[in-house]
Design a protein that fits this description.
heterodimer, A: 2 helices, about 95% helix, B: alpha+beta, 4-stranded antiparallel sheet, 3-stranded antiparallel sheet, 9 strands, about 10% strand
Chain lengths: ~160, ~400
């Protein structure tokens, strides 16, 4: 019966000792230890999360890089194409301009030749007309004196005159 | 109606039992094993003992295993380590004397336990403060006026002496309890300092040893039993009882400490169970009290029927805690001591190998039991807190 009867003295000391133990351990052991453990767990969780974020960011960055590269490539293509076009255009333009200019020059030359020709023709006509008149005058005058003479005159006149 | 009764029973009490039931098989097998070994041994010890007595009774001081075991299991005033040259002229005891503190009608009286000179049969009379104290089976009695020696009744209780009003002696259990808390302080304050010193909260040294245990109590006991939101409040208590019980269970197994059977003492388990009961009662929410006094979800007659059962259950829970720890630890001590007694009962060294082998086996089991019992006490306390703080769910 003794064995299963709680002794007051031991109950008293157990209570006091336990409360002291609880108080001191709570303040100086459990709080810092549990705090440290949960801090560390939190830290690990955060580290994992930030690593995941970093990985995602990396992926984004790589995707961005890829995109930028793609864009740059496309831009280069476009620029090259533009340049080629411009060159072709320039060449074509120059060609047409040259053509135009040439044809204009030719036209001008033709016009000048034409006008020269006309002027020459006109001069020739007037010259021929003058000569004809002179000849006619001299023929008329020689015929008037002697038939042979008149003929000789005409022949002489014709021999003098050169068609230029 | 019968089905209904079973169903309504299931609601809470049985749910709790079910949770406990998970732990029970292990405990049952252990205690059954203990019980069997205990019974067989004691039967053999006693029958042989009596046979011997009949043959050579009165030859020399007979060995009484029951008295020896009970003296080892119970509390004592001094911390007796060993006796040298027993029964000879130069008999000597190695003892740590501890203070006897008693409060009587004449006030507080204090003297060293060595004043009894290792006597616990009431022979040595210590006169202090005008009172005469005797030690009867490790309990201090005050001799009545005029009595010169202790007289006993048929059951061995003193008839002419009485207990003091309060006996606050630093007994060997109190002493060992203080040693145990000193060890706990040493372990855990050192561990806590380790964390403070490290910048990144990485455990090192003793901290890396205790951290898994602390995390175990948190993740395997507090969190599942109490719940994620409320477990933090109870962590200091759960950790403290877990390690307090465990270390005292372990101390009880160290032979040289000579049966510092603190956790196998009903006063110790009574105190801890009472604290668990008080915490449970004070943290009980509306839902908890409703389940006790007016069980929801059952017809009114059932509510009335369940109320006394639940009220009894409130007290049975801590009482079961108290008895479980006390009985398990005491039983372990009794078995080991009984096995050792075999040598002295048979009065032959030939039996020693058997005794040693068996008690080694039981000691190894007890090493496991120390942890299991600490775990069970803690997890059941946590379970009760969890039940007290459980929110109503539909």
């Amino acid at each position: 019966m003794d064995l299963i009867t709680p002794e007051f003295g031991l109950v008293f000391w157990t209570l006091i000792t336990f409360l002291v133990l609880l108080f001191i351990l709570r303040k100086f052991a459990w709080k810092p230890i549990l705090g440290a453990v949960s801090d560390r767990e939190e830290g690990i969780k955060n580290a994992l999360a930030s690593a995941e974020n970093a990985r995602k960011e990396m992926e984004n960055l790589q995707a961005d890089n890829e995109r930028i590269l793609q864009e740059a490539r496309a831009e280069r293509e476009a620029m090259l194409k533009d340049a080629r076009e411009i060159r072709e255009q320039t060449i074509a333009k120059a060609e047409t301009e040259a053509q135009e200019k040439a044809s204009k020059i030719i036209e001008k030359a033709q016009a000048a030749i034409e006008s020269e020709k006309k002027a020459a023709m006109a001069e020739l006509k007037s010259h021929v007309a003058g000569l004809s008149i002179d000849i006619a005058e001299k023929v008329v005058r020689g015929e008037l004196s002697n038939k042979d003479k008149q003929l000789k005159l005409v022949e002489d006149m014709l021999g003098e005159t050169k068609l230029n | 109606m019968k089905l209904l009764l079973v169903n309504s029973f299931n609601v809470r009490t049985f749910a709790a039992n079910l949770k406990e039931g998970i732990l029970k098989p292990q405990r049952m097998t252990l205690s059954t094993l203990k019980h069997t070994v205990f019974t067989v041994l004691f039967l053999s010890v006693f029958s042989f003992g009596f046979a011997k007595d009949a043959k050579e009774g009165g030859e020399d001081e007979k060995f009484d295993p029951k008295e020896m075991i009970l003296h080892h299991v119970k509390d004592a005033y001094g911390m007796h380590i060993a006796t040298l040259n027993q029964g000879e002229e130069n008999e000597a005891h190695i003892t740590i004397p501890l203070p006897v503190i008693v409060y009587t009608d004449k006030g507080l009286t204090t003297f060293s336990s060595s004043a009894f000179h290792h006597d616990y049969h009431g022979h040595e009379i210590v006169e202090r403060n005008g009172q005469r104290f005797v030690n009867v089976h490790e309990k201090v009695y005050i001799l009545d006026e005029g009595a010169s020696e202790v007289a006993y009744d048929a059951e061995g209780h003193p008839t002419n002496a009485h207990r003091p009003k309060f006996d606050l002696s630093i007994t060997r259990n109190v002493f060992m309890m203080w040693v145990s808390i000193a060890v706990l302080f040493l372990i855990f304050l050192t561990a806590a300092r380790r964390y403070k010193r490290s910048d990144d909260n990485v455990p090192s040294g003793i901290a890396s040893f205790v951290e898994p245990l602390i995390v175990f109590v948190r993740d395997e006991i507090a969190r599942p039993m109490i719940g994620e939101h409320k477990y933090k409040r109870y962590m200091p208590y759960l950790l403290t009882i877990f390690f307090f019980i465990w270390i005292n269970n372990i101390f009880g197994l160290i032979p040289i400490l000579n049966g510092a059977n603190l956790s196998g003492n009903i006063a110790f388990t009574f105190t801890l169970a009472t604290i668990t009961f008080i915490i449970t009662t004070f943290s009980g929410n509306k839902n908890y009290w409703k389940h006790i006094f007016w069980m929801p979800g059952v017809p009114v007659p059932m509510k009335i029927f369940l109320m006394p059962i639940e009220i009894i259950g409130m007290f049975v829970k801590p009482i079961s805690l108290m008895i479980r720890l006390f009985a398990n630890i005491t039983a372990g001590h009794v078995i080991i001591l009984a096995l050792m007694s075999l040598i002295f009962v048979f009065k032959t060294v030939a039996i020693a190998p058997v005794s040693v082998a068996f008690s080694l086996f039981i000691t190894v089991i007890e090493v496991i039991v120390t942890a299991i019992q600490a775990y069970i006490f803690t997890i059941l306390s946590a379970l009760y807190f969890g039940m007290a703080t459980e929110e109503e769910h539909h």
